[in-house]
């Protein structure tokens, strides 16, 4: 572990209780800043029509606005990359639900 190391795999402080999805998102948000990622390569960003419909139907307006602000701030200049900001918003709104992407497939 490195000082101040944190991310989707946790913070490596030996306390598994603070490595839940909820606590990680509280610390770093819905996404790790690309400039801070320790992983090589780039993940494929997917934002389907069904995910868009679910985001509009099930994410409360206040939370969606909060997601927009958080994602644009976190992504910086990458916010203009197609699908990156809405995919981040989806994660912000539904990241605690491990089945959210499967649930989104129910929207036609």
Topology:
Elements: H1 21-28, H2 49-58, H3 61-75, H4 84-94, H5 100-104
Helix content: 40-55%
SSE pattern, N- to C-terminal: HHHHH
Question: What would you report as the Rg, rounded to the nearest angstrom?
Answer: 14 Å
Sheet bearing the most strands, described?
none
Strand % is under 5%
Using brief descriptors, characterize the structure shown.
single chain, 108 residues, mainly alpha, 5 helices, 45% helix
Task: Kindly summarize this structure in a few lines.
With 108 residues, the chain is mainly alpha-helical. The chain contains 5 helices and no strands.
Tell me about this structure.
This protein is mainly alpha-helical and 108 residues long. It is 45% helix and 0% strand. It contains 5 helices and no strands. The chain has helices at 21-28, 49-58, 61-75, 84-94, 100-104. The chain is globular, with a radius of gyration of 14 Å. The relative contact order is 0.18. The model has no long low-confidence stretch (mean pLDDT 80).
């Amino acid at each position: 572990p490195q000082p101040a190391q944190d991310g989707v795999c946790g913070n490596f402080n030996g306390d598994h209780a603070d490595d839940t999805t909820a606590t990680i998102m509280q610390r770093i948000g819905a996404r790790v800043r690309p400039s801070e990622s320790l992983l090589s390569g780039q993940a494929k960003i997917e934002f389907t029509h069904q995910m868009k419909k679910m985001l509009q139907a099930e994410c409360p307006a206040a939370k969606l606005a909060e997601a927009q602000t958080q994602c644009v701030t976190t992504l910086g200049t990458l916010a203009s990359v197609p699908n990156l900001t809405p995919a981040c918003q989806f994660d912000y709104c539904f990241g605690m639900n491990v089945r959210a992407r499967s649930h989104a497939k129910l929207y036609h």
